[in-house]
Design goal:
Layout: H1 2-16, H2 19-25, E1 42-46, H3 51-62, E2 66-71, H4 74-88, E3 93-97, H5 103-116, E4 122-125, H6 143-164, E5 170-174, H7 198-219, E6 224-229, H8 236-241, H9 243-249, H10 256-268, H11 270-273, E7 279-282, E8 285-286, H12 300-319, E9 322-323, E10 329-330
Parallel strand pairs: 1-2, 1-4, 2-3, 4-5, 5-6, 6-7
Antiparallel strand pairs: 7-8, 9-10
Helix pairs in contact: 3-4, 3-10, 5-6, 6-7
Length: about 325
């Protein structure tokens, strides 16, 4: 069954997820969907110094938006910012240095951002990782899970109050079509029980993101939530994490701009905001979250268990504080550049 499901998924991907797939569907795109000015609206993008994140930041800056680039590497972030400002002519571009795998730091950053800025209109959860060996972060969380799921959960959950008081708030999570071959494993969120396969762990994290998006849409009706699949894109992350796949697909892979198109559409267009919240998008259209005849659906009990586990894992991180010698509590102030 697993082999059948994976084969169906791959054949489907060759048709839809490649450059040709994008070229076919983009013929039906409404160009007027991008005829908007977003001066005064603010956008936070994680993983914004390369690949889809950078292409998204560039597109939003060109439209006049205030762009908050959340990046792990300061030098690469500065380089990307310089390029974006130069090409867009928009100086409202800010860098925030943060490693999304450091769970406590993510919470501290989000708390600091809420104090520093009066609004945030759109959060784009784009940063991700695919590690092929099991490693743990400082909080003892598996690194893929820490970055792809826990980081997204804590950043979004902490920023929800700020988003709620902002106009037309949206949260977009860059997931992956790979999640279609995974059922939420609420009893093994950190991939401890089976053989550790980085690609399948990543796909499981991406399923977790889609379930989270549905949950958030249900409990936060003021905010428009969406997850999306960018297709198979030629990014530095793909070439590093999946070199054989990258080499095999070659120029059939989408460009970063093609991969970012639906992210930008979800962030900018009025048409996107009219779609029901909580959906999974591909090439500007909602698509099924499960393959035909798939057994990847989750029960209400499994989803409840998943959310409860995330809440429990977040609690100790959110209650930790540094105390200076005089007894003052210090939630570390993030670095704003």
């Amino acid at each position: 069954m697993s082999l059948y499901r994976n084969t169906i998924w791959f054949l489907n991907g060759i048709q839809q997820y490649t450059r040709k797939g994008y070229e076919a569907t983009s013929k039906d795109f409404e160009t007027k969907d991008f005829d908007v000015s977003v001066v005064g609206r603010s956008y936070m993008i994680t993983g914004a110094n390369s690949g889809i994140g950078k292409a998204t930041a560039m597109a939003l800056a060109k439209k006049g938006g205030t762009v908050h680039m959340v990046c792990r590497n300061k030098d690469r972030a500065e380089e990307a910012k310089s390029e974006i400002v130069s090409e867009s002519g928009n100086t409202e571009v800010y860098i925030h240095i943060l490693d999304m795998s450091q769970t406590r730091k993510v919470w501290e950053f989000a708390e600091g951002f809420k104090k520093e800025y009066p609004s945030l209109n759109v959060l784009i959860n784009n940063a991700g990782c695919m590690m092929h060996k099991r490693e743990l972060n400082a909080e003892g969380l598996e690194m893929n899970f820490a970055t792809n799921t826990m980081g997204v959960y804590i950043l979004t959950q902490t920023l929800i109050p700020l988003l709620q008081k902002s106009q037309d708030p949206r949260v977009i999570t860059v997931s992956s079509g790979g999640m279609l071959v995974q059922k939420l494993r609420a009893d093994d969120l950190q991939s401890e029980k089976a053989h550790f396969d980085g690609i399948m762990v990543y796909a499981q994290n991406k399923r977790q993101q889609v379930v989270l998006t549905e949950h958030w849409a249900n409990v936060n009706p003021v905010i428009h939530f969406s997850a999306m699949h960018p297709g198979w894109v030629d990014t530095p992350a793909v070439s590093t994490a999946m070199p054989q796949f990258h080499q095999m697909m070659g120029d059939r892979l989408r460009s970063v701009d093609q991969g970012a198109d639906t992210v930008v559409w979800l962030a900018l267009s009025r048409a996107a905001a009219r779609k029901p919240s909580g959906q999974f998008f591909q090439d500007r259209k909602p698509v099924p979250k499960h393959l035909p005849l798939a057994w990847t659906h989750s029960s209400a009990e499994e989803i409840h268990s998943f959310i409860t586990q995330l809440e429990n894992l977040a609690r100790p991180v959110q209650s930790q504080h540094d105390v200076d010698p005089e007894g003052h509590v210090d939630a570390a102030t993030p670095q704003f550049v």
